[in-house]
Input
Amino acid sequence: YHFMPQSGWMNDPNGLIFFNGQYHVFYQTNPYNGFWDCMHWGHAVSKDLVHWEYLPLALAPSEEYDDYQKGGCFSGSAIEHEGKLYVFYTATANHGNGSEQSQCLAISEDGINFEKYDGNPLFDAPEGIQPDSFRDPKVWKHENKYYMVVGASRNNRGLALIYESADLYHWNFLNVLAESRGEWGFMWECPDFYPLDGKQVLMISPQEMEAEGLEFHNGNNTAFLIGNYDKEKLKFTREKVQSVDYGLDFYAPQTFQDGKGRRIIIGWMGMPDADEEYVNPTAETEGWQHCLTVPREVTYKNAMLYQYPVEELNGLRKAGVSVSGSDVELPVNGPFDLDIKVKGEQGKISLGENLFLDYQDGNISLALSEKAGAGRKVRKAHIPSGKVEALRILADTTAVEIYVNGGEVVFSTRYYPETDEQTVKVETAEVDGEVYKLKNCVME
Ligand code: FRU
Output
């Protein structure tokens, strides 16, 4: 039930939108083999955010501005305009002066077939911005104008630029929305900017960050900057920084607002530039690699952002089996959804000999066995509210998402258990809840 490519390589989710009664997910893909190269946009639709139907590739490198070895149609976003689907993407090309990135547009009337705009590229990097680090346009509408945030690099520091347009074709550079002071990487990939419950969120994926305490241990990381937006001065001021995910495989998320007004986030469960060299075993043997997280609703409460699987995922649950007491050992074969309340100051919960959660003194750690994690290490997180009171574990064949206290802390990780005969094991803690086996959810 984690969305995966039909074949080949997958990275960032792109162009997330609810359009003509369906959810659309586009994604960065190299359809030819299991490794990153010549970027296309893959495409799938769903009526319920759970069952996905693959559609033909939406964008392929084809023009001078987006066609070159190790380039193509990079990440971007979608917006509806006059009943049509407009997608904005970054074209990467190389005409002999190194890689150059520009923002481009493609339009679809039926939501399936896209035509690149004749006037592409729309614009390239403004002065002072590195031409090879100017990408990932995220577009939204406010009152009668369109806005776009683009990730960039200046003097080796990440920043986000804001643009404005009256018609989606002509764009004016307005301002630097926010900039790293050196603490958040040399380039901000995949910026996203949205109001949420009275706050403004700038979500960024900075490349090559230094870890700080328990935060940002993946090299390239993802952060929620929570604050306020001054629409007159076109400036974002941050009040708080929060790690989006503490797992070993999470990067380049994007959000969108659906027909029900929910702010939904989907991330890429991959991490190619992580400090541990890691290739999913399927890349060589089966010619495909990576997946997306399940769609999660993002909300603001207790002065922070929470993420929790959309309620539609509950529809996959078969009858529950009770998990209760302080010493539990329960076989569950194949994918499952564990939903429990937890009591006590400390505890250990594990999935067979593959994955270990351990919490005490206000922190929680996730560890994978050498085999299941392909040699990857432990990740730890501080629990903002102090202790673990609820846990939801979405375990798939080779992907796990762990939600602590309704989504205060989230870990997303790929793992490779030796068999699918999993055992949920609880030690020390006092737990009460259920585990659900899941209905088959084969993509069409
Ligand atoms: C993030 C990213 C984006 C870029 C895309 C290329 O993972 O590097 O910045 O547009 O992937 O595939």
